[in-house]
Records
---
Amino acid sequence: MSRTILPTIACNLDADILSASLPLLEEGVVGALEWSFDALFRQDHVIPEWFYDLLTAYSNEGRLIGHGVFFSLFSGRLLPEQAAWLQRLKQLTRQYRFDHITEHFGFMTGSDFHKGAPMSVPYTSGTVAIGRDRLQRIQDAAQCPVGLENLAFAYSLDEVKRQGAFLEQLIEPVNGFIILDLHNVYCQLHNFNIPFEVLIQAYPLDRVREIHISGGSWETAVTDQSRSIRRDTHDGRVPESVFELLERTLPLCPQVKYVVMEQLGAGLQTEAAKIGFRNDFQQMQKITEQFLEHHPRMAAVPNNFLPEQSLPPGQIIEDEYLYGEQQILSYILEHAAGHAEAMEQLQHTALRNSVWDIEKWQPDMLETAIRIARKWK
Amino acid sequence: MKISKKVLGALVVGLAVQASSSSCDKVQTKPEKAKKVGTENPANQQPDTAYNCPACGMG
């Protein structure tokens, strides 16, 4: 069976992204669109006709994929906003044909549904149960393949090494897939000084249906000024190292169908930045085409990433203790003056000597968590 | 994937309208016709399309 990998743009209702993408769309080289369908809350989920027509053009060809941002998969409590999110998704699937739907790993730190950033959770049987329950609800609402993206952020090396296996457990009941974000991998390789060969094998590569690439930024580590922390800020060009990761990763992922370039509109406001964006897309496209030239046939039996039978969600799984701990952690991350104060405060909470393993959290990563939580507060 | 000229043309016009409304700092410019997603009130159609993504977790 011949193989297809579609060069894709993460394309939201953002004038800068769309104007940067326009020449690529005119050229006919954008194979698919990834749309963050839940990011229109500022506009009350109303979209202009011309954007609707663009989405529909890709939807009609089965080349529209949905990428959720705000579901907060691991919130210990299933919130009314999550129920509304699921309902909206269900309505959208009547309007558009999504080839698949994805969300992010983690829980949102913000005080309301559209604030905060995703942070990781302890890897326990309880969090697996919550994650599986929520994924099942997404699958039930969308009635198409569902997947989860690996998270760039981690507090410790142990967490980095275990994330792939945890993702695999989560997606197993829905026969789901993962998005392997290579810039997130790049952040982990740098921040935790771990070899690519080791880290990449920790992910279920036969479950990768989508790959992301993007750019990011550097920040000086607070505990050691000679060290830097890589952040996945999506505001710059794709580093050459990430293109190299793409070349090395494609042969390892027999089911990959989409390779997606992500950049924030805020980083695309000058003509030079727009040209850079298009050059990066073309480089991504070239790498993909070269790979397909050498691997024109499927290397494995195609996985449709659908459950064998319909799985209507059962009783809601919630964990009030986990929810409470998430509230405490979010508050501390948003209000502590720095990592030392945050850790001191955490020592007086239920997170101490718990499954959260705060004793293993790296100070620089805790400081980064504080900066991220505050940025999106 | 080839996109029809009609869709591309509408995109060009839509972006131009957005750009001019943003540069003039108008907040009431509405698209001539809008497709509504979901069940929410469509009254609030502002051209604010700024979108920042915290989703990756290191943003």
---
Amino acid sequence: MIGFFIQRILQALLVIIAMSVIVFVGVYAIGNPIDVMIDPASDQALREALIQRYGFDRPLIEQYFIFMGNMLRGDLGESFIYRLPVIGLIFSRMPATLELAVSAMLIATLLGIPLGLWAGYKPDAISSKFIMGLSVLGFSVPTFWVGLLLIMAFAVELGWLPSGGRGPVTDFLGMKLSIGSMEGLSYIILPAFNLALFKLGLLIRLTRSGTVEVMSSDYVRFARAQGLSERKVVGLHVLKNISIPIVTVFGLELGSTLAFAVVTETVFNWPGMGKLIIDSITVLDRPVMVAYLILVVFLFVLINLVVDLIYGQLDPRIRVRAAS
Amino acid sequence: MSEPVLRVKDLRTEFAVRAGIVKAVDGVTFEVGRGRILGLVGESGSGKSVTGYSILGLIELPGRIAGGEVLLNGVDLTKLKGEQIRRVRGAQIAMVFQDPMMTLNPVLKVSTQMIAAVRAHDNVSRKVARSRARDALATVGIPSPEERLDAYPHQLSGGMRQRVAIAIALLHKPAVIIADEPTTALDVSIQGQILAEVRRLADETGTAFVWVTHDLAVVSSLADDICVMYAGRVVETGAAADVIASPRHPYTAGLLASVPAEHEPGERLPQVPGSAPSLANLPPGCAFAPRCFKAGPACNTTPPVQHFEDGRTALCHYPIEPDSCQPLSSTSTTYQNAS
């Protein structure tokens, strides 16, 4: 088990290093941030001074090693634009994205798994066909468009929910969260549901196909021959067997939602990390981009590690393979 | 023979497929007495497994039981619905399947599956259920049952898994166990052990077995009675020893002739010519006629059930006469010539 961990952490380090090189070189190739940062009318002397101050005159490789050296000391640098430490900048935006992503995953899971189970348990029922139709819409209709429709319907026409922004936040474990108060909650419902739609469609289909497969298996037939109730058959045999693909997709989706909730955040004007990264890319704010992507890699590695550990709990055959 | 515990009367199971209605089981009738083992023999597609599933009401759409009765201690199982049939399954009549690799859920411990099976019918604590599971494992000859309970199916050998499946079937001491080719996927040596175990269980516990198989060698060493099926119909019944010694139906004779053990090594093995007909497209009259060496003009019409001494029956216009006393070798010659 410890060997497994060490292997995973080494892999993660390699990914982080490779990723930082790619981003660093990529951003360098795009252009000189100075051109974006300063007033085009300013004179050459000021330009030179700034280039020197940020170290853009040094060779790329040197700039890279200075950056990585600082990172090892826990200093990811300062944003060119905000003049704030990057770490603080990202972490100030993180709770917003975190609560949005987690709420979306909760909605998708709590709705998707029961609906998928039903659609797989009674594949020929009208209700199941309706569910499957919805799931196709869920992941084929563009997110931003659904978002706009949601705003039109619930904020503009009905006036039930706010159209955007984050609303009041309350303090929870040092993080500022919206979900602490009823009013804050009303702000998160629409964006969370919008973000959940794609995952909902995915989870419904995944759960359904797993259920159909398990329901036709010999061990389900054997369980029925033992006189197990249908509730027990589904609750014990089906749920346990379909959980592995579900956990995989859940992990992947949680990671990508945290990292790339950009579209929904933009539509609903939600002040999360997605908006931060998009803004940084427009102005070539290199420290923010690199730090953000390193954080994303770290998140993915962490989520995958947890998913792998859960696998072992769910399927004993994987434990055996890992041990041998 | 005492009053039979299981009596299947004129059972009909149909599947509605694109090609029409397939009569997988077409008027099957047989009975099994307490502690007796009935060998239900036939080729692939003869309807023997579907008969087993029909008895437990495990037929799923597009299949359905179209008629007949399954009387378990006088109660017609085909009339039971939902919760009523669930209470019978596993408690009064149980089933063991062909492939022990597939019948146990790979991600659940043996104990989890056995405890669920106990608690499906008896409202007992997990602890009591576990000790009953352990006893059942011991009954089927599993060494150190306590440790096996905590194993996952993949940690057990095929023979061990099939014993676990049989132990699960035995948990509620059912009157009847339907065994659907349970030893087909196992080594011959393991098969022998399990057959001996089943024979002992039938004698000691009084459980009746319906042993579905295509393997006549298994039937001859295990079963008290034989019921031979062909294309969804029962073509011959009788005491196992009698049927094997002198088959009355030409199909049974052909099956027996093709058992390798009866022949010299290197000798060409006789076989029943042709292959089993598609159930969707059966010939009129006797379904076996096109492959039969005794087929005559009457075979275009539905054959009658002929009754013989010792309660034997055969579904045939021209049954083999015991007087002519055809030894197996002559039957096999007949089939060789026919092929």
